[in-house]
Amino acid sequence: MYRFYVDRDAVAGEDITLAGEDYNHIRNVLRMRAGEEITVCDGAGTDYLCRLSEFSKDCVRAKVLSQSGSRTELPVRLVLFQGMPKKDKLEFIIQKAVELGVSRVVPVMTRRTVVKLEEGGKEEKKRARFQAIARAAAMQSMRGIIPEVSSAMRFADAIKAAGELDAVVIPYERAEGIADTRAVLSGLVADGVRSVGIFIGPEGGFAEEEVALAVDAGAKCITLGHRILRTETAGLAVLALLMFAFER
Predict the structure, then answer these.
(1) pTM for this predicted structure
(2) Which residues of the chain have pLDDT under 70?
(3) Where are the alpha helices (DSSP H) in 58-177?
(4) Does the domain at residues 77-246 carry the CATH identifier 3.60.21.10?
């Protein structure tokens, strides 16, 4: 069944209005007609089974038949604190992280980050593009929410923000003991945590004092094995492990 995303304010009682690109796709690409059924997601975890009821010049109305919580969301909120990488790597990371179930992506400026933040307007335009990538990835993977891509944070601010989560892990190349890592990750499931932060360093990795700051704030250092993973690989590896561990 075809799936569409709308803002929550587009849901008015038993009616949902779809306009813009969605309207064009329904009418001119899919050539759907009144009486056919679609699924509409409000991007906040609720799915609506709808029947197309009325076409007008610039929108289509759909009648809500039933609603339910999305079945595609994990029972845990995963927040990726990604050390800002070079070039277009962040776009790739956002796309794949959304597919793996992340709830929020926070670009982080660290001591070894090479990329410099641009002035307000340019940076906001870039964030809007990142958010569009997250939306497209959510639609492709049939997510129940549209994950947020936050504005970039300084490392110390990111650590403070992560303090609101139930648990935080930080892969570090000097961490040892894969058995300890397995115990940490399985313990998150056993403890029933509802939110987990994952800190990933940029191309040059974290500075020792950054790891110490994270650990002092309660983060658990983990290892991803004997191989050194690229920044665009490490976060996805952790997300895949957590997705598998928490998937219902």
Answers:
(1) 0.89
(2) 120
(3) 89-100, 120-140, 155-162
(4) no
